[in-house]
Amino acid sequence: MYVTLREVLAEATRLNMAIGSFNTHNIEMLPAIIRAAANQKTPVIIQTSEGTASYIGQRNLVAVCRSMAEEYGVDVVLHLDHAKDFAEIRKAVDAGFSSVMFDGSALPFKENILGTKRVVAYARGGGASVEGELGTVGGTEDGICISKQQVCYTDPDQASEFIELTGIDALAVAIGTNHGQYRSKTSINFDQLERIRDAVHGFPLVIHGGTGVRDEDVRRVIDLGIRKFNVGTDLLVHWNRASLAAYEANKENTSNREDVLPALDAVAAVVEHRIELFKNISSAQSGESHAAE
Ligand code: 13P
């Protein structure tokens, strides 16, 4: 079914797992992500930037997510990632996105609250969920951290106040991750995440910059309350590597489908690997389920 963020995160909380939220950059990548999630029998969140939403067309994105959710019998959320512009948020909600993020993290606390509340009020009217953000998630360029000096972790007390005053459905937290970190790995501040988790009493938390998170850290952050796990760059890097090789190998009059198909396989493999981790099944549990089969 085509569902809201609130619905899938409630299920993730019940099952102590995270839902993968994957950035698509074009319309071709989208079916590969949904099919991979259907294979893994988990809900999935498709997210796009404001730029990608305009490039593909908001209504086209909604139509594909709705029809594939129905065809594959998988819960799909369509989410607008890191939106700062209210007009873009309104366009997405009006088109039928089932979730939007208002990123007011660069604003003073009070302005972030006011901006987020305005988005929550609009999104509710359109039946969409809202993710807010507090603190600074870093950024990287070619694997080099460009924002170490400005890192500002999410304050646990502010997080609790922010959730209460805005009415959001999920909160993105700054705990040391960086967007775009694919050559190196992130040092997560687990103590900070634990303090936030305790302050917000199990409210669904979101990790950004998932590409840089080590596989072995995934279980720990989920156990500390991460319910939405964002992954973008990993898909792009694998797509680009596979399609570069295909374009190089194929003739100029080959159907360009042949250049895209290897990229789709590469993306699907990344998505399936991540989702397997996000299910947070311990080795003991997976042994039990194999034994029962
Ligand atoms: P990465 O591109 O680092 O995986 O981050 C994705 C993300 O957090 C999108 O908001």
UniProtKB/TrEMBL annotation:
Zn(2+) 1 binds at residues 82, 179, 208. Its EC number is 4.1.2.13. Binds 2 Zn(2+) ions per subunit. One is catalytic and the other provides a structural contribution. The active site is at residue 81. It is an enzyme of class 4 (lyase). It comes from the Bacteria. GO terms for biological process: carbohydrate metabolic process. PROSITE patterns: ALDOLASE_CLASS_II_2. Zn(2+) 2 binds at residues 103, 133. Its cofactor is Zn(2+). Pfam families: F_bP_aldolase. GO terms for molecular function: fructose-bisphosphate aldolase activity; zinc ion binding. CDD domains: TBP_aldolase_IIB. Keywords: Lyase, Metal-binding, Zinc. Dihydroxyacetone phosphate binds at residues 180, 209-211, 230-233. This is Fructose-bisphosphate aldolase.
